[in-house]
Design goal:
Keywords: Cell membrane, Membrane, Transmembrane, Transmembrane helix, Transport
Pfam family, one: Multi_Drug_Res
Largest sheet: none
Mean pLDDT: 94
Low-confidence stretches: none
Distance between the termini: 14 Å
Membrane topology: Multi-pass membrane protein
Number of helices: 4
Shape: flat
Strand content: under 5%
Number of strands: 0
Order of helices and strands: HHHH
Oligomer: single chain
Organism: Paenibacillus aceris
Structural class: mainly alpha
Main location: membrane
């Protein structure tokens, strides 16, 4: 169950980052709400995951999901670079997170 909490925590981290980006574009209740809900849910689920998973692994996977998710959302929705080198490094972060799952 800890891994499920951790994956959802990473996904909510991406929601929080999208909210932060929206705040930078237009300060509205919707953007602040998206940011707050994303961050609160992310930290809450990370806390639940860390009850059964090692702290170092949990944090590394959580930040990895957030990093990869944020980069993908940026490329798909915000016109950020889709350079092949960027995609290779995103793949490396993702493979490191999967590697931590396999050894934990």
């Amino acid at each position: 169950m800890g891994w499920i909490f951790l994956v959802f925590a990473g996904m909510f981290e991406v929601v929080g980052v999208v909210g932060m980006n929206q705040i930078n574009k237009a300060k509205s209740i919707r953007s602040f709400s998206l940011f707050i809900v994303g961050i609160v849910m992310s930290f809450g689920l990370l806390s639940l995951a860390m009850k059964t998973l090692p702290m170092g692994t949990s944090y590394a996977v959580w930040t990895g999901i957030g990093t990869v998710g944020g980069a993908i959302v940026g490329m798909l929705f915000y016109g950020e670079s889709k350079d092949w080198k960027r995609i290779v490094f995103i793949g490396m972060v993702l493979s490191a997170a999967v590697g931590l799952k396999l050894i934990a």
